[in-house]
Amino acid sequence: MNDSGSVDNRVCLGDVLTDLAWHCSPNGQFSDCYEGLSLADYRTLKIAAGEQRCDRECSMQLLITSLGFTKGGVTRIVDRLENQGLVDRCRLAEDGRICCVLLTESGRETFERIESTLRTRIEAALERLPKRHSATLRAALPLLLAEIEEG
Length: 151
Known about the structure:
Elements: H1 13-23, H2 39-53, H3 60-67, H4 71-83, E1 87-91, E2 99-103, H5 105-127, H6 131-150
Antiparallel strand pairs: 1-2
């Protein structure tokens, strides 16, 4: 936005989104929200929480696909979260080859605190914007994310 309050069309949206992602990450201005977890740790908790809310199993394969990491990378993340008492591993009764990740009570509470804190901080930033800009962002960003995810 320029001094007159209008959007500068010369701004590279990719740069803005990258900077926004950085500031909202554990490395940026929101670092205190993540309770010492990395972004990959947080995303793992988020995926597992989403699957549990829908009464689905969160398999290691789902994490590999969703995070875009190798099997070894996801194993290290889950090991770290398991050592912190945030997740447990289990085998599916129907197919013992499938390893699933479940949030522990502590993991669920940690995830919910992080989500609440992030939501509060982002809402506070949006409230400081003029209403028309806030409404535009609320409408446009989910659409942009959906387009990016569809490829």
